[in-house]
From TrEMBL:
Protein name: HNH endonuclease
The organism of origin for this protein: Candidatus Gemmiger avistercoris
Domain of life: Bacteria
Length: 112
């Protein structure tokens, strides 16, 4: 059984391109660490490089009503851009803290 995140590489690349075009700040730190380095490769050598973060962890797909891990990994509303570093920190803490989607954040915060 492969990693569901990479089951559909073409879709994944499309999502990456869309996030890059939007230029959103990191959904985990809300941009506190600075802008995402969208042009860097996603790896530990560039802690602020761009990765796609699953808001609801793919490993808990049943809990969130998805049909499969792949469905969770491919649901646009379940994805947000994040720094490599923030994503790694979140994984270490198994996602106990509620994570606010950057997309929802923009809708909710109407003060500016
Ligand atoms: Zn971040």
């Amino acid at each position: 059984m492969g990693n569901p995140r990479y089951a559909n590489g073409a879709l994944r690349r499309k999502y990456r391109a869309r996030f890059r075009a939007m230029g959103c700040p990191c959904g985990i730190c809300q941009g506190r660490l600075g802008p995402i380095h969208y042009d860097e490769p996603s790896d530990a050598q560039h802690p602020l490089s761009f990765v796609i973060d699953e808001i609801r962890p793919v490993s808990r797909w049943r809990e969130f009503g998805y049909d499969s891990p792949r469905a969770a990994a491919e649901d646009w509303s379940n994805l947000q851009p994040a720094h490599y570093w923030c994503n790694a920190q979140k994984s270490n803490h198994t996602g106990d803290a509620p994570v606010v989607s950057v997309k929802n954040h923009f809708i909710r915060d109407g003060r500016w």
